[in-house]
Amino acid sequence: MTIKERIQKYFREKSAFRITSDMLFYLLILAVLLPFSRKHVATGFNKILMHRPAIINEAMQIKLTDADYEWKLVEMDGTLIPFSAFRGRVVFLSIWATWCPPCRAEMPNIQRLYDEYGDRLVMILASNEEEDRVRQFLNDNGYDLPVYRMVQNPPEVFQTSSIPTTFLITQDGKVTIRKTGAARWDGNFFKSYLDDILE
Q1: SS3 sequence, 128-196?
Q2: How, if at all, do strands 72-75 and 62-63 pair?
Q3: In the chain, what are the domains?
Q4: Of 95, 98, 100, 164, which Cα lies nearest the Cα of 133?
Q5: CA dihedral 80, 107, 172, 195 (to 10 degrees)
Q6: CA–CA separation, 156 vs 65, rounded Å?
Q7: Any bridge partners for residue 166, and if so which?
Q8: CB within 8 Å of 149: residues ≥ 6 apart
Q9: pTM for the predicted model, two decimal places
Q10: What whole-number distance in Å separates Cα of residue 80 and Cα of residue 69?
Q11: What tens digit of pLDDT does each residue of 146-190 get?
Q12: DSSP symbol at 45
């Protein structure tokens, strides 16, 4: 049987729905394989799979030590900031990168969270990428988030092998959320929790 005959047989025997779903499947595979579309497809899947973050059981929450607060970060303008400057405040700390699809997927809802809570909450998006790359990413996407560069390894409590990893730290220094992967940070569940601890 020739290729032309096989194609004709396929279109005769399959329903319109099956043909459409097969074509979509092959297009998806192709999009994942092509370098220029892979990042966008992966980001889209992460947006679909995002869910709300979970609160750590109180007995399992870690309280930061004085040594944990000795970590230093650098603002985008080059100013060195000790993490201890944020002691006593609620801190949203996300370790991320511009090339990471789950990071890119959750960034719009982090921006919305910042727009709503930025004056009541310390937001730190920490990356070890070059300043120019981060600045370009922010500009290209219209984000005005507070991004910091990591000039030293974070303390053990914040170390992670996966990004994004996001931590929520309360005023008394307890880590009540540690979420790896994309999450819905602007959802009602998380905002309600924030409202409670910010009172």
Answers
A1: CCCHHHHHHHHHHHCCCCCEEEECCCCCHHHCCCCCCEEEEECCCCEEEEEEECCECCCCHHHHHHHHH
A2: unpaired
A3: 3-49 (no CATH), 58-198 (3.40.30.10)
A4: 98
A5: 140
A6: 11
A7: 94, 179
A8: 73, 74, 76, 126, 127, 128, 129, 131, 134
A9: 0.78
A10: 14
A11: 999 998 999 999 999 999 999 999 999 999 999 999 999 999 999
A12: H
Asked if residues 167 and 158 have their Cβ atoms less than 8 Å apart, the reply is yes
- CA 61 to the chain's CA centroid: 22
> In terms of Cα–Cα distance, which of 58, 64, 126, 66 is closest to 97?
126
Phi and psi at residue 73, in whole multiples of 5°?
Answer: -125, 165
The residue written with tokens 């870690």 in the block is: 62
pLDDT tens, position by position, 57-82: 999 999 999 999 999 999 999 999 99
For the record, the structure tokens of 55 come out as: 């609160």
- Concatenating the DSSP letter of every residue in 69-136 gives GG-EEEETTS-EEEGGGGTTS-EEEEE--TT-HHHHHHHHHHHHHHHHHTTTSEEEEEE-S-HHHHHH
Longest distance between any two alpha carbons in the chain, whole Å:
75
